[in-house]
Amino acid sequence: MDDNQKLINEQQSKIKEIFSDDHKLHEYLFQTMDNFYFRYLETTENQNLKTFQIAPNIYGTESFEISMPQALKVSDPEIKSGITELAKTVPKAERPRVKYRLDTRILEFGSDKGHLKITALVSWDFPYYLNKEKMKTKEVDFKYTDLNEFRKNLALKLEEACELFN
Q1: Domain total of the chain
Q2: What value does the mean pLDDT of the chain take?
Q3: Which of 76, 121, 126, 144 could bridge 101 with an S-S bond, Cβ 3.0-4.6 Å?
Q4: Could you give the CA distance from residue 21 to residue 88 in angstroms, rounded to a whole number?
Q5: Model confidence, pTM
């Protein structure tokens, strides 16, 4: 084995050792998700967002935009149309808001393999946010078979889901 391959193997062993602790694996997932909130979910009303447990095995965060001009910067025509309708029909005095959410459902999670469902959501169903006809989601299925694949592709999969917010 040449020196370069030996160095790569040593580095992979160190990484695997660090992430063999489930706590460290979760911490990496949450920190990576937190990095996406600044770019995609922070609004005029919600800043410094952090990942929290939404439900068993579901982690993420949500935010609300009260500025309709800011919310209308989205490029998706369905979302834009819904937000336009919200802005027209709900009086400003009622403080209409658009809801954004990014979450990850953990179906299987370990350093050797895992399965995550990453979901981005925009809802203009003020004030309840329950009507599926007034929301749009993008779900990304992420399966990995080793730690390097997880670390390499997690941000890419989050980015893919966050395309909904553009």
Answers
A1: 1
A2: 91
A3: 121
A4: 51
A5: 0.86
